[in-house]
């Protein structure tokens, strides 16, 4: 039998190589069909509001798997959405953000170090970028704000390391307990820029707990962030339930966010405002810290140990 041939069949001699090529062509055709179906489906997926960034990236979700926003089991508790502030709520950067922004202003615009009478806490970074440039006598154009933003992001990692901040009491334990709850989704509602929020969470190792966020790069009024959060939840669920949406923060501005959309406000006195000040601002629930006590867990997820 000549080399490279097989036994005779109904159609005569067949080359093994030719048969393999035909098999490969069929498999490739099937792959192309699947790919076309997938691309057609993706093309018809509605786009999310621009200020929402899925977080963390898909390749890293193994450590904190995503769950559906709502289930089909009618016996399950209604899914709760917990939207966390970052600075003063989850962590204390010990002034790293302020230091990085002032250094960026000094280095990028040759502005001498000076004491700016600008309240940083509770403000969005968009507000701070404009306010710092204005106070320094620089016209806060989009181009100038972009320069300051890029310089700030570049200097933040070094300042985080230098200032030696920390996660606030009970936060690691709280996030881990919430991660185990199947009817709870964790998100961010923060005045930080998206890139600096990511740097801060990565620095303290808690970036994988949050699956989406709305950030302070598009609005100066923090309440606008709450409106975007509501828009996102309506997009995902078809409706917005304020009773199962909790905004968790440490300032009266966080409380105002919750009030703006009728959500439940949970405040903690870990960022410089006292329990009395937070109660006066109208918080629905006020805690000294976010250590996962039975009382806090009952408020957040409706259960106790």
Give the low-pLDDT segments. Answer: 1-23, 42-77
**Rough outline:** globular
User: For the record, what CATH class of the largest domain applies?
Assistant: Alpha Beta
Distance between the termini: 78 Å
Radius of gyration: 26 Å
Strands, count: 9
Tell me the strand order in the biggest sheet: 1-6-5-2-7-8-9
CATH topology of the largest domain: Rossmann fold
Beta fraction: 5-15%
User: What's the name of the CATH homologous superfamily of the largest domain?
Assistant: HAD superfamily/HAD-like
Number of domains: 3
- Mean pLDDT, to the nearest integer, reads 81
Give a short account of the largest sheet: 7 strands, mixed
Short description:
The chain is α/β, with parallel strands linked by helices. The protein has helices spanning 16-43, 96-109, 125-135, 142-163, 171-179, 194-203, 223-237, 252-261, 275-280, 294-301, and strands at residues 52-54, 80-84, 91-92, 166-167, 184-189, 212-214, 245-249, 264-268, 285-287. The protein has three domains: 14-45; 52-92 and 168-301, HAD superfamily/HAD-like (Rossmann fold, 3-Layer(aba) Sandwich), CATH 3.40.50.1000; 96-163.
Could you list some keywords that capture this structure?
two-stranded antiparallel sheet; about 300 residues; disordered N terminus; alpha/beta; Rossmann fold
């Amino acid at each position: 039998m000549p080399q490279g041939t097989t036994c005779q069949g109904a159609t005569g001699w067949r080359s093994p190589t030719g048969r393999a090529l035909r098999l490969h062509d069929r498999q490739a055709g099937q792959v192309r069909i699947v790919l076309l179906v997938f691309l057609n489906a993706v093309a018809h997926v509605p786009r999310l509001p621009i200020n929402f960034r899925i977080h963390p990236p898909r390749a890293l979700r193994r450590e904190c798997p995503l769950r559906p926003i709502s289930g089909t089991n009618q016996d399950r508790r209604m899914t709760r959405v917990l939207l966390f502030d970052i600075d003063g709520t989850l962590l204390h950067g010990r002034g790293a953000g302020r230091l990085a922004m002032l250094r960026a202003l000094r280095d990028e615009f040759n502005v001498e170090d000076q004491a700016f009478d600008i309240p940083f806490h509770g403000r969005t970074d968009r507000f701070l970028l404009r306010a710092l440039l204005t106070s320094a006598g620089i016209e806060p154009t989009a181009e100038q704000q972009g320069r300051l933003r890029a310089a700030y992001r570049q200097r933040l990692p070094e300042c985080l390391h230098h200032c030696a901040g920390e996660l606030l009491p009970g936060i690691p334990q709280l996030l881990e307990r919430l991660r185990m709850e199947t009817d709870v989704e964790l998100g961010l509602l923060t005045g930080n820029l998206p890139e600096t929020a990511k740097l801060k969470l990565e620095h303290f190792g808690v970036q994988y707990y949050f699956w989406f966020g709305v950030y302070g790069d598009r609005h100066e009024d923090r309440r606008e962030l709450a409106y975007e959060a509501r828009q996102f939840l309506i997009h995902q669920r078809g409706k917005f339930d304020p009773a199962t949406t909790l905004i968790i923060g440490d300032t009266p501005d966080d409380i105002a966010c919750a009030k703006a959309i009728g959500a439940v406000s949970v405040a903690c006195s870990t960022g410089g405002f006292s329990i009395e000040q937070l109660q006066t601002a109208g918080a629905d629930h006020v805690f000294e810290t976010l250590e996962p006590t039975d009382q806090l867990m009952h408020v957040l997820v409706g259960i106790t140990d």
